[in-house]
Each structure stands twice: as C-alpha cells, then as structure tokens.
Amino acid sequence: MRPSRHFFEEPVDQVARSLIGGLLLVNGTGGRIVETESYDADDPASHSYLMRRTPRNGAMFGPPAHVYVYRSYGIHWCLNFVCSPGSAVLIRALEPVKGIEAMRRRRGTTDDALLCAGPGRLCEALGIDKRLDGASLLRPPFTLTLPDDRRAILIGPRIGLTKAAERHRRFGEKDSRFLSRRFAKET
C-alpha cells in the first residue's frame, strides 16, 4: 500500500516505526527500510530545533510527504521524510532489493550488507543528493510502499549525536543484518 500525505501528518515517532519494512525505490533502485530515526522541533538534535528555519532546513517546514536532503559534516548526503512542519524521519538503512548492481557500482563494493547501511551509504547507493531536496515522496523518482505486515522492531538511542543522544528515537528491524549498527539491547 502506498502512503498518502496524511500518513506523514501522524506523530513523527509513529511514522518512523511504521516505515520499517516498507519499500523505498529511487528511479527503480532501492530496498526495504530497516532502520529510521525521528526528529522534531522540540528536539535539540533536530535541524528544526525551536522552529528555526534556515535556507538549509527549509524543506523540513514544507508540506508532509516531501524529502529533506542535507549534507552531514560536509561529506555524506542524508535522506529524511518530512512529517508535520519541523519534523522528519531520517532513513538510516535499507535491505537492498532492486537495482543491486547499480548500487554496487555507485558504492564500489560487492558486500550487500554495506550498500545501504547508514544514511550516507544509502544516499550514495541510491544516487540521492541535494537536487532531490524538497521533492515529493508521492511522485517519481520515488516509489514508497508501506509494509504489509508488522515487524519486530527494536528501539534505542540515536547514533552520532552530541545533543539529546540519550533519547530513544532510533527504530530498527529486529534481526536485520542490514542495520547501520546493532542495537545495544533489545527493547
């Protein structure tokens, strides 16, 4: 089932959980979402903290069901799904399903477990960069479908943060070998 714009208007933590197991394709290349993180304007780790809009984070204040793409530490692109204004879900990892050869070429590896394990690797494998910032998730080049069944989901603190690192807003599919990093304990 394809999500509607209304799906993204739900609370951001709920959206982040509900995306686990869904299929994300960009120009026909991609896979199953196995790891996400959530952010909102009340979160000191969010680019939209206290609803401060900048040229960089403008897409986070746009309509739901669009993407916010930014460069992390000047190195890696990161893909976020915009929910309500100032909130977004970071797509952290995919299990590669379609276009695996293209992903291998882009990433320069044949280790499928490393193709999309981490937001930077994921964007490189799918060919995502700033040109997609603000694009609709409901139209090409994106194809997004929600999972047909419930998955066992682990919850833990987010990765690589200096602010609000203790918050449990990272969601991952239990037993997936495609996560960016294992969860410390099962919750």
Structure report:
β4 (76-82) and β5 form a beta hairpin. The protein has a single domain, classed as Methylpurine-DNA glycosylase (MPG) (3-methyladenine DNA Glycosylase, Chain A). Strands 1, 2, 3, 4, 5, 6, 7 and 8 form an 8-stranded antiparallel beta sheet that branches. The mean pLDDT is 93. The chain has helices spanning 12-18, 100-107, 119-126; strands spanning 23-26, 29-39, 67-72, 76-82, 88-98, 142-145, 153-156, 170-173. The longest helix has 8 residues, at 100-107. It is built from 3 helices and 8 strands, in the order αβββββααβββ. It is globular. It starts with 11 loop residues before the first helix and ends in a 14-residue tail after the last strand. By secondary structure, the chain is an alpha+beta fold.
Beginning-to-end CA distance, first to last residue: 28 Å
Global Rg: 15 Å
Count the beta strands. Answer: 8
Shape: globular
Q: Which range best describes the helical content: under 10%, 10-25%, 25-40%, 40-55%, 55-70% or over 70%?
A: 10-25%
The level 1 CATH classification is Alpha Beta
Tally the helices: what do you get? 3
Strand content: 25-35%
Question: How would you characterize the largest beta sheet?
Answer: 8 strands, antiparallel
CATH hierarchy: architecture: Roll
Return the CATH topology. Answer: 3-methyladenine DNA Glycosylase, Chain A
